[in-house]
Design goal:
The protein is an alpha+beta fold. The protein folds into 3 domains: 133 residues, Alpha-D-Glucose-1,6-Bisphosphate, Chain A, domain 4, CATH 3.30.530; 138 residues, 3-Layer(aba) Sandwich (Glutaredoxin), CATH 3.40.30.10; 132 residues, no CATH class. It is built from 16 helices and 20 strands. Strand 2 and strand 3 form a beta hairpin. Helix 5 crosses helix 7 and helix 11 runs antiparallel to helix 12. The longest helix has 68 residues.
Length: 559
């Protein structure tokens, strides 16, 4: 009987479950990079290697061979044992191992730990460890963790992460000097998150954090920096960074690597308020700690250079094999013996190549799945946001029609609570970028009321004009501008468009956006006390104004 297209499709459909089972899900779990100091390189190296080997014994299923404890290369693949292999380089001194540990509760799941220990070119020893989860067949959720030996190697006083010493307890930030040190850490090049837990206003008792700082510290040692911020110190941090980037009143903030207050958006460094943490799904504060640990460990393997930070075991063994062959040639080894060594090298390299191809194809498949889920989630969020925005507009129109709107309050006379005022009055229509908040803190402009009036002008007239159009709305906006003595114009025109580099740009949603429009008062004075400028752009996707700078004039080529 000839197969019809439909019949062939049915046959292929029946094969899909088996095909899925033949594929592996490869998920990088965590990675640490420790700088060990405080003793001779040999002592640090040998002690770190022995600590890893003692941990390995509990997973190998058999005693390790004598050459393992002598620091030599070895391979354990006997029946009844789990795979453990080690490779060694002499110059520079480097020791690498790979340990495969079958999951005790889920069949066809293996935890692969790769460790590399090498002498630092200048001082001390570097230890890198990477944990990967490989699942073939049924995949289930797992809690991210680090290999157990990391805590033993990352001893306070002996280990450094990102150039900072590992602390025995969470770092207590209580003085202005501590705050300055914290800010320096936030801006410094680093691989790890900085997680700051704030105490209540006025409190200096580290036990009053909303979650256990100790559990968080112990669970992320070597992979994150955990600090507790006292109530008084939180005010100093807010003064330095501004409210959008600070943390206070028992909230928790995660400052991710690459912190840059002039370019980042506040949500790039997530903030969780105490009531949200206390109501966290599936366990409240304890569940939130698990979430934080999972997020911080995931970021240790999400960087583009994650594989470069810790050379893979396959790479080290490849290099060791090539060096062994080169040494044999130099020693005058016979052609027959060289041929045997070369054949061994080819077999090893072919096996490593096959393994790497499988790993990277599986990583790509995993990444593509995560990308597709992220795209779907983003589309769903956009749909819900559009529906909510439409509902809010309807309610506001109904309120105005009933005459329920409250009396128009006079604009504030100072900029002391500018951020709070923006939060209360501009939400959903006008977003003030963190860079603009920083500019307002340095403002010398004398007509404070105009700053608030201009923001309300954007909220009440410009945003509806852009959302709904119509000559009536356009005329109302232009009339209101004239009443305030303002002009709304493109930021640049003609041949000068876009020539000012990053000065007239802000980063939002991971993209650089040009502040293409601005509101300005009459005259060409540059006196910051009398010159007013508000630079913004219209975000078509979110249907709102984004204010990137005010109230002073941004520098141009002419200035």
């Amino acid at each position: 009987m000839t197969n019809t297209p439909a019949g062939l499709a049915e046959q292929l459909r029946a094969l899909r479950p088996g095909l899925r089972r033949s594929l592996s899900a490869v998920v990088p779990v965590s990675q640490v990079l420790l700088h060990l100091k405080g003793a001779s390189k040999k002592e640090l190296f040998d002690k770190a290697r022995d600590t890893v080997l003692k941990w390995t014994v509990g997973r190998a299923g058999r005693e390790l061979p004598e050459q393992a404890w002598a620091g030599e290369a070895f391979e354990l693949e006997e029946v009844g044992a789990q795979r453990v292999v080690a490779a060694v380089l002499d110059h520079p001194r480097y020791w690498a191992t790979r340990v495969d540990d079958a999951d005790k509760s889920l069949p066809q799941r293996t935890w692969v730990t790769e460790v590399g220990i090498g002498e630092h070119p200048e001082e001390g020893v570097l230890l890198g460890a990477r944990l990967t989860c490989v699942t073939q067949g049924r995949d289930e959720y797992f809690i991210r963790s680090m290999p157990g030996f990391v805590k033993k190697v990352a001893r306070p006083g002996a280990a450094w992460v990102d150039g900072y010493p590992v602390r025995p307890h969470p770092w207590l930030i209580e003085s202005e000097k501590d705050v300055e040190a914290l800010i320096d850490m936030l801006h410094a090049p680093r691989r790890c998150d900085v997680i700051v837990l704030a105490l209540p206003d006025g409190s200096t008792d580290p036990r009053e954090t909303v979650v256990s700082a100790k559990i968080l510290h112990d669970s992320t040692i070597g992979a994150a920096h955990v600090a507790v911020l006292t109530g008084p110190a939180s005010f100093a941090l807010t003064d330095r960074l501004g409210k959008p980037y600070s943390v206070f009143r028992r909230a928790v903030r995660t400052y991710r690597p690459g912190f840059d207050i002039s370019r980042d958006e506040p949500f790039s460094h997530p903030l969780a308020l105490p009531h949200r943490i206390e109501g966290w799904p599936d366990g409240g504060p304890e569940a939130y700690v698990r979430f934080l640990v999972d997020q911080s460990l995931a970021r240790t393997v999400s960087r583009g250079d994650a594989l470069e930070a810790v050379p893979s075991f396959a790479k080290v063994r490849e290099l060791a094999t090539k060096r062994r062959l080169a040494a044999a040639r130099q020693a005058g080894t016979s052609d027959k013996e060289l041929l045997v060594l070369a054949d061994q090298e080819i077999v090893e390299l072919r096996g490593q190549l096959d393994e790497q191809e499988r790993t990277f194809s599986e990583l790509l498949r995993t990444a593509e799945g995560e990308r597709d889920r992220t795209v779907q989630d983003n589309e769903a969020l956009k749909s819900r946001l559009a529906a909510l925005r439409y509902r809010v507009e309807q309610l506001e129109e109904q309120s105005r029609a009933r005459g329920d709107s409250a009396e128009i309050e006079a604009p504030p006379t100072s900029l002391d609570d500018f951020e709070d005022w923006c939060d209360r009055h501009l939400g959903g229509a006008v977003e003030v970028h963190a860079r603009a908040y920083q500019a307002v803190k340095k403002s010398e402009y004398e007509n404070v009321a105009l700053i608030y009036q201009t923001l309300l002008l954007l909220r009440d007239l410009y945003v509806p004009m852009r959302r709904h159009g119509g000559m009536e709305r356009k005329s109302a906006f232009e009339d209101a501008c004239r009443e305030l003595g303002l002009d709304e114009q493109p930021t640049f025109s003609g041949n000068h468009w876009g020539e000012e580099g990053e000065t007239y740009r802000v980063r939002r949603g991971g993209r650089s956006r040009l502040l293409e429009r601005h509101l300005k008062n009459g005259g060409n004075t540059r006196d910051p006390r009398r010159c007013f400028r508000l630079y913004f752009y219209w975000d078509d996707e979110d249907e709102q104004v984004v204010v990137g700078w005010l109230p002073s004039h941004l520098d141009s080529r002419a200035t």
